[in-house]
Design goal:
two-stranded antiparallel sheet; disordered N terminus
């Protein structure tokens, strides 16, 4: 039972493992740690001022979320997102995220947070900073689907966010299009705010699939059709 004094008590500090996990995740999703880069526990610990134990635990957690690959011989490395994996992630996004946004629009969800994040993308540091753009891109998309009314659907999409962001950052390394994508975001948000659920759904699905089409050809192990089409299928 919480007393009035405990209600004012500050939240507990983040654990060392959580601190390391969040720091390494942001470094990966900003491109600071590149695909295939080895993450040496002692070096990461020295960089963040912690021992190897929380680093080891954090890397295992990141391996579980698909951002890090663990190997007996190589240790932990930043996951290399190949074309097959990227298609799998984006195929699931294209199935679920537009549906979630359609439901959010039909329920009359408030898209004020999405509007605020979009303004930051267009006018703030994110307009020129890939690391900032990566974070705000994730926040914008979540603000669109968060009001869908199905907590399990939100949870599934949240679970995809890190891997989707890894595809995005890899793609921006191939084709730095995040500034141009703001116009697509604006069109999606405008449709949502007008209450046009079907248009918002369509524009978001096109936004997701068009991005992968722009970068899939340069991802390792790109998919091919029987006729040799390097785009493959979605």
């Amino acid at each position: 039972m919480a007393s009035s004094s405990s209600a004012r008590r500050p939240p507990p500090p983040v654990s060392r493992t959580d601190f390391v996990r969040d720091a390494v995740k942001e470094a990966i999703l900003s491109g600071e740690f590149g695909p295939g880069e080895t993450l040496v526990e002692a070096e990461v610990g020295a960089l963040l001022g912690v021992s190897k134990t929380p680093v080891r635990e954090a890397l295992r957690s990141l391996a579980g979320s698909g951002l890090v690959t663990m190997s007996t011989y190589k240790g932990a490395t930043v996951r290399v997102m190949d074309a097959e994996s990227a298609h799998a992630v984006y195929d699931l996004r294209a199935l679920l995220e537009p549906e979630a946004v359609r439901r959010a629009v039909e329920r009359g969800a408030d898209f004020g947070e999405a509007r605020r994040v979009l303004a930051e993308v267009e006018t703030g540091a994110a307009a020129a900073d890939r690391a900032k753009a990566s974070l705000t891109n994730r926040l914008f998309h979540r603000a669109l689907y968060a009001g869908c009314g199905n907590p399990l659907l939100v949870e599934v999409l949240d679970g995809l966010r890190d891997q989707a962001a890894l595809v995005t950052v890899t793609g921006w390394g191939i084709s730095p299009t995040w500034q141009g994508e703001a116009a697509e975001h604006r069109a999606i948000l405008n449709a949502a705010e007008r209450g046009n659920a079907r248009q918002a759904e369509h524009l978001l699905r096109k936004h997701i699939t068009d991005f992968l089409d722009r970068v899939a050809f340069a991802l390792p192990g790109r998919r091919t059709t029987e006729t040799g089409d390097s785009k493959g299928t979605r």
